[in-house]
Specification:
With about 110 residues, this protein is mainly beta. About 10% of the residues lie in helices and about 30% in strands.
């Protein structure tokens, strides 16, 4: 997941502080799906190039007036056109805990 201002070329999605615990569980080598939650779109498949960290760059994205301290460096595995939530929600239907909110950690099942 990431804020709308994230550009994949920056190689380190920025994530709000409310998700720091989730990001800290990310380990280098994990496969990640980039979900832009403001647009409700899925953007490609990435590999974590680092463990999840906090305050890698303390001033990152501060011009937006928001703080995004949780980050994971990534490398792109597969680029795809953005998928709307309506296009992928069936694949993760068991992860939804309300009408439009789902658990970010997905399993192989």
């Amino acid at each position: 997941m990431c804020e709308a201002s994230f550009k994949p070329l920056k190689k380190a999605p920025c994530i709000p502080y409310s998700h720091v615990d989730f990001v800290r569980r990310v380990k280098a080598g994990m496969i990640l799906l980039l979900f832009k939650y403001e647009q409700r779109e899925l953007h490609g498949v990435f590999e974590a190039a680092s463990d999840g960290e906090v305050n890698i760059v303390s001033s990152a994205y501060t011009s937006s007036g928001k703080q995004f301290p949780a980050r994971v460096q990534v490398s792109r595995i597969w680029h795809c056109y953005p998928l709307s939530e309506g296009e992928f929600c069936g694949a993760i239907e068991n992860n939804y805990f309300s009408a439009n909110k789902f658990n970010f950690g997905l399993t192989m099942s």
